[in-house]
Specification:
There is one protein chain. The chain is built from seven helices and eleven strands. With 242 residues, it is of the alpha/beta class. It has one domain: Survival protein SurE-like phosphatase/nucleotidase (Stationary-phase Survival Protein Sure Homolog, Chain: A, 3-Layer(aba) Sandwich), CATH 3.40.1210. The strands form two sheets. Strands 3-4-2-1-5-6-7-11-8 form a nine-stranded mixed sheet. Strands 9-10 form a two-stranded antiparallel ribbon. The longest helix is centred in the middle third of the chain and has 16 residues. The model has no long low-confidence stretch (mean pLDDT 96).
Length: 242
């Protein structure tokens, strides 16, 4: 099996080194990563400027490349420029959870979605900020579970999140739905007419069967994310057809 590993935290990130090394027992691993942090880049791509694609020695024992583009570009360039017939794409491990509506901002999920655009199964994996101890302890079990049960598919991105901060061990695995987070962000002026993000007022849904709630309870969550974002309100709106 040929496995492409990408991320949005950059080639120097802890998470991508952990993921790439843990995936080696499943096949041939190749890394393509941004040359800098590209967090919250969503599914953006570079289309009008050139993109550098340079071999990197920053992940010992694994063939790796760093690019000047976005996380989704890692998939696009990796599939185009490397003479490898990849079977699956893994994105992560992100330093920060990608739950609920985080998936719209996430470069980690965006890169995995790009793989789905290209007809490949993909898996995105995230953990809470600076929570790599639980990843090191449980990632092997998670990956064995994914591969043994062939949980990946060309029809969806399998979005996996480790539990919220504070859990040294997960309570188990739960397949669930994407929850809802609503944001209202304030910005603080740092200098004349230049602002930086400040506090975000955050509203979480109360649905107990969601990645948000189950992550808070200590579970590793698995959410299949599809391409069709048509709202359930379509049926109601069709009465206005004319």
């Amino acid at each position: 099996m040929n496995i492409l590993v990408v991320n949005d935290d950059g080639i120097d990130a802890v998470g991508i080194k952990i993921l790439a090394n843990h995936l080696k027992k499943y096949g041939n691993v190749v890394v393509v990563s941004p040359d800098r942090v590209r967090s919250a880049s969503s599914h953006s791509i570079i289309i009008r400027d050139s993109i550098s694609f340079i071999e990197s020695k920053k992940i010992e024992g694994i063939k790796a490349y760093q690019i000047s583009g976005m996380p989704a570009d890692c998939v696009r360039l990796g599939l185009s420029l490397l003479n490898v017939d990849f079977d699956i794409v893994f994105s992560g491990i992100n330093d920060g959870l990608n739950l609920a509506t985080d998936v719209f901002y996430s470069g980690t999920v965006g890169a995995a979605r790009e793989a789905m655009f290209s007809g490949l199964p993909s898996v995105s994996i995230s953990t809470d900020f600076n929570c790599f101890d639980i990843v090191n302890n449980e990632l092997d079990s998670v990956l064995d579970y994914v591969f043994k049960n062939k949980l990946y598919s060309k029809e969806y991105v399998l979005n996996i999140n480790f539990p919220n901060k504070g859990f040294n061990k997960s309570l188990g695995y739960r397949f669930t739905k994407q929850g809802i987070k609503l944001y209202r962000t304030t910005f603080v002026e740092k200098e004349n007419s230049k602002f930086i993000e400040g506090h975000s007022v955050l509203t979480l849904d109360s649905n107990k069967d969601s990645d948000v709630s189950l992550g808070k309870e200590g579970y590793i969550t698995f959410v299949p994310l599809g391409l069709d974002q048509t709202s359930n309100y379509l049926g109601e709106l069709r009465k206005y057809d004319k």
